Amino acid sequence: METINNTSTKGDIDKLFENRLRKIIKPVDPDPSYVKKLKKTLLDKTEIYLEQDNPSIYLLILIIGLILLIIIFLILNKIIGK
Amino acid sequence: MEKIQPTEIDIDNIDKAIKGDQDAFGCLYQENIQRIYTYIYYRTGNRSDAEDLTARVFQRALRHIRTYKKTDVPFSAWLYRIAHNLVANFYRDSNRKREVPIEEQEFYLPQPEHLETILIKNEQVESLLQVIRRLPSDRQLVIILKFIDDMSNMEIAKILGRSEGAIKSLYHRTLLDLRGLAEDEKLK
Fold this sequence. Notes:
The complex is a heterodimer.
Chain A: H1 10-24, H2 32-43, H3 55-81
Chain B: H1 8-18, H2 22-44, H3 47-64, H4 75-94, H5 115-119, H6 122-133, H7 137-148, H8 153-160, H9 164-184
């Protein structure tokens, strides 16, 4: 470890202190099993399906509605006509 | 640790992850897990809290990846922001004291790769880490980003939403304060 002697300037002392910090503050390795487990938890979730608008469903509803209206109209017409 | 500047592969992975590609998010996770874990570990002082909060950072990132804007900050910087906020909430919500009793603390000690590292006494390392944890959160972040990620003042400025000059000044003041505190603790 560096020693700070009497002839050190203020800048030298700053640099020495910075170097000391650099030696102490190092990347820390997380537990590999934790890393693996977390990745699995994050990515193995059930897939998200985005609901998308399907225009053909609206057309189908419209056609069914029209057919029902025609049937009702015909039934009512027959009843009233009697 | 890899530099924070994104490569073309990173950019490609970010694009894919934004579109919902889980494998791409997995690559981003793999690249950033160590730096985020390290940051939180230094902030909290124990592995259990670091693991819990790191998991929350990536869960939040996955949920909000579509809101990430590439032009704003690098992806790792975006993760640091999330981590910074979560650690702040962690202390605020639980009113935890930042100083963990010495007997409960786990300290990371550098692997003895060379003589100089071996000569760093454990006690000094522990005391200095305690002093770092007493700093305000933004100063801790500056120190960790400087020493772990070797970030420039400009990159740190983007993360903290301040000017480059402000970060330069903050870093300088932090070093001075740290040295003062370290001297108080008779580390020298």
